Amino acid sequence: MSTAPVGVLGGTFDPVHNGHLRLAMEMATALNMAHVRLVPCARPPHRGAPTASPGQRAKWIRVAVSTEPRLRLDDRELLRDGPSYTVDTLASMRKDMPDTPLCLIMGRDVFAKLPQWHQWERIFDSAHIVLIDRPDIDATLDPEASTALAERAVDDVQALHDTLCGHIYTYTPPPLAISASYIRQLLAENQSPRYLLPMAVLDDIMDAGVYQPQPATAATQ
Ligand code: ATP
Fold this sequence. Notes:
By secondary structure, this protein is of the alpha/beta class. 38% of the residues lie in helices and 14% in strands. It has a 7-stranded parallel beta sheet, with helices on both faces.
């Protein structure tokens, strides 16, 4: 295979933060990837609607990765109708990049429930999975996920370069205890999440007034 793999990090990114960005950089370096795409989902099938709009979430990712060529925004899920099924996203990327290995990056907690995803086994027709082991997360795998791991696990990064799809590679990055929900919580309590996310993203969040508590109405003052 002549082309280096492209990483795919899907998520809600409500908002993007340094945990996402550092994870993507770790992956790009450790797995020697061409670049990693951050792919915000329009309508997450497995959780409630995001607070920020699709346009805001995409804009913040664009701002956050603007000076790092190995990280990119891929907004294809925002441009199509219907639920954001990962299997469709990967099939569409496969069409765009027929000769490039694709590596779908996901936490062990997400992988544990993978068999609940729409047409989950077809994911391996388009991509490898890079399983992020987080020591803080102890997720018991669904039996079918466990079988897939046993059948598809590889120890050598080179396997992700030599084939287009179908393997599972496990990686344990240095943990960073940052989450979008913690950032939303701080903002809702009028506290600063500074240094948990890029300054330019935080500035835009503050300007737009997303996540902050609504001013009390005259009746409740
Ligand atoms: P929320 O707190 O709203 O659930 P989140 O911070 O986990 O959001 P997502 O958009 O759900 O962000 O995450 C996208 C992907 O990034 C997921 O695969 C998730 O496991 C991973 N991720 C998020 N935060 C971190 C982190 N601090 N370290 C490593 N991976 C992370």
